[in-house]
Amino acid sequence: MGFALARFGLGVLLSAAGVALLLLVTFLGGRRVGRHSVIDVAWGLGYVVIALISLAFSAGHGASSQRVLLAVLTAIWGVRLGGYIALRQRGAKEDPRYTDMLDRAAAAAPGTSRTVLAARKIYLTQGVVLLFVSLPVQVGMYEAGGLGVAAYLGVALWLLGLVFETVGDFQMARFKADPGNKGKIMDRGLWGWTRHPNYFGDACVWWGLFLVAAGHWPGVLTVASPLLMNVFLARGTGKATLEKHMGDRPGFAEYLASTSGFLPLPPPVSRALHLR
Fold first, then answer.
1. Below-50 pLDDT ranges, the chain
2. What single string gives the DSSP state of each residue in 222-262?
3. Among 24, 69, 226, 255, which residue has the fewest nearby CB atoms (within 10 Å)?
4. Is the distance from CB of 19 to CB of 50 less than 8 angstroms?
5. Residue 102 falls in which region: left (phi positive, over 0), alpha (psi -120 to 50) or beta
């Protein structure tokens, strides 16, 4: 059996329609509650929508074991992430990163409503990224070969990423729940090894999913998807944007100098290398 290219193309269109519907609902919900950070909840769930649509539409056109594996791994990651962010956002105000983004967009396009700018800069942009980053999952659903060594390595890397994210988020939530830590920098547990265990975990998850798809042709061609996610997390809108807003906090400069910026490293090694 070859790769069902035509069927895959239709599946991508269906996934795009599913993501568009999800983001439309999210956009309307964001307008109602007065904050566009609700899209952070939809971010993980969007991948679940894509995985389920791809699983259903690829029936009879790909190896069942790989199709189910990709769907399950994506769903576990996406539901956990979306649920965690939903709990974290309860009663929260707008994320200043989105406020700054819209402020810059409004300055560059005077006269354009912030609603239009939000739809274009936040929701449309993230929808396109969702579809691109998820290509290993979408392509992998239509591959005829069964699970091989690459798939098992991918699952191991995915599991490492999920553990890093989950443990890091739990440690941060427990730290913030202690009133005595208000205004302090979290530098304990995994946060003492990397300033962004959740971002490092995300990267591992998507490189893991890529490996599952890359065991057969043409999954290897989707390497740009995890690479883009890695760049966003380590160099782009993830790490850099977040740290810009933390720069004036007491103790952050010392934390920056003593803790690895992305790859987990023991604190003494980080201090010696002074990794940013």
1. none
2. GGHHHHHHHHHHHTSTTHHHHHHHHTTSTTHHHHHHHSBSS
3. 24
4. yes
5. alpha
